[in-house]
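Holo model, NAP. Inputs:
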Amino acid sequence: MWDCLVIGGGPAGMTAGLYLARAGARAAVVERFAVGGQVLNTERIDNYPGFPEGILGYALAELMEKGLERFAMPRLSGEVREIEIGMPLRVRIDDALHETKTVIVSSGATWRKLGVPGEERLTGKGVSYCALCDGFFYKDKTIACIGGGDAALEESLYLQKLVRKIYLIHRRDAFRGMKVYQDKVLASPSIEVLWNTVVESIEGDTAVQAVTIRNVQTDARSRVDVDGVFIFVGNRPLADFLPSAVERDAGGFVVTDMEMRTTVPGIFAAGDVRSKTCRQVTTAVGDGAIAATSVLAYLENIHV
Ligand code: NAP
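Output:
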């Protein structure tokens, strides 16, 4: 039986794993793809301390993984399908059941969809959610980016280095993202912000050709020719495997207390999957450390 299964190998999970391994707990990190999480989709991280010049996302993930290897942290490859509540907890990974005293849910979040006609059909044919993955295909082309948060601003700043022109389409008259990104976006000669504007549909037969947009103040509709559409309208948690007894917020994110305890004893959560305001690598790392410390305290007090 495991002391703890850490579900998800992003920065939160890797940090939790590191703490548990150093403490000698019988723990493993479960990951369905490569460890690193969304950091792998981020070009450069400028707000993680210790790297004064910034660091490439995959390079940071690689360094974190090396830290885990040093403590010989076991890794289980597979997808968590279900957690059965009990003492012990039973975690189904692919088709195998694993018994564990605790879990740390650090399965992260993924991009939300816009939900407009054409989006689903043209995904992979001009509709993308990942600048680092697909930006290269739009060299010297015209694209639309949708959203006004940190992701939309930061990814537009990355994409402007590749493409000819970006229409940054935001539904309000003010950005939600950080001021430091806002200033750079507004100063960019290749980014044109379309304020108070929503995308009603994405057009194209076999590839994206245009978006139909509507100004929410005037109700005026127009068609803008673009070769690609990058959608950055927020995240949704990756936690479909959790039992309903684990409380979620309105967006589906997992509610915890300050010790990363969920509403079910033995189930802890850390990182982007958690209900919180600041989703950064730094806060994920902090969550992971707190969750592992709470798990270790919990293990001291249970008898399975
Ligand atoms: P976010 O902060 O939730 O922003 C989502 C944006 O999309 C908002 O501007 C929102 O508009 C807009 N939006 C949502 N639904 C929409 C819809 N149906 N139609 C049109 N627009 C829609 O999400 P995010 O930018 O993905 O960031 C998620 C988290 O990761 C945040 O905590 C963020 O700070 C963090 N993050 C940090 C960095 C960094 O520090 N470098 C980079 C990326 C992400 P409204 O503003 O009107 O609500």
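Residues 107 and 239 are 7 Å apart (CA to CA). The chain has a mean pLDDT of 96.
Archived with the compound record.
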